[in-house]
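BUG: 3D viewer hangs when loading the predicted structure for this chain

Environment: internal workstation, default settings.
Expected: structure renders.
Actual: progress bar stalls at 90%.

Input used:
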Amino acid sequence: MRYGSICSGVEAATLAWEPLGWDCGWVSEIEPFPCAVLHHHWPDTPNLGDMTDETFLERAAASGPIQCLVGGTPCQSFSVAGLRGGLGDDRGNLALRFCQTALDLQPPWIVWENVPGVLSSNGGRDFGAILGALVECGYGFAYRVLDAQYFGVPQRRRRVILVGYLGDWRPPAAVLFERESVQRDITPRRETREDAAADAGDGPPYSRTGNERVEADAIVPVMAAADAGSGITHSLTSRIGVAEEDGTGRGSPLAVTVAA
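Structure tokens produced before the viewer hung:
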């Protein structure tokens, strides 16, 4: 899998995907410190710079085809801790630039990440506009809120993960949802706070789903471009409760207590 990364930061995607043998064809970052970190760790990976530059798409296309476009566009305008300018804010509008990049480069897969506040920004219309843009670009998709504490990180950090695939929503649904969930089997599995905190770091990073607790009022539909009537749903509530988004990107720390 060869992929391109926009709004790369210090390139969390590559840290996760390198062990799989995936190849980062290029990154796109403008902040000085992240750029220095990227150059230090991946000196042979070109940094294409500003994704809004008029030559960006031309340079990205010239670097060769990619199979996936990944990026977490700025969250400040969507965060509940900010002014919530949404897509009307230049930073929030970069989400639509992500869609434009996908339209021009046509990678089979896309992965987009942001804070849960994007779901309610402008009464949900901002997220609807992003999804609508992806439909116009030809992508079927699924999205889900995942929490880092269930993937080997001792920190509550909830994020919307959106996966898209050209022409079909089923591959993204297979990536984000367990087979039992696709079959609408949402049997509750409850654990105590102590048990959940103790096992937050256990096992491989893919062993936790982040959605073991089911709440009737926390069901959000998967948006399927190819089949809007599919009606697949899944719980978005974590087992230890909902963490607040503070707008800093740090999340809320999870203290793990080990009994003597």
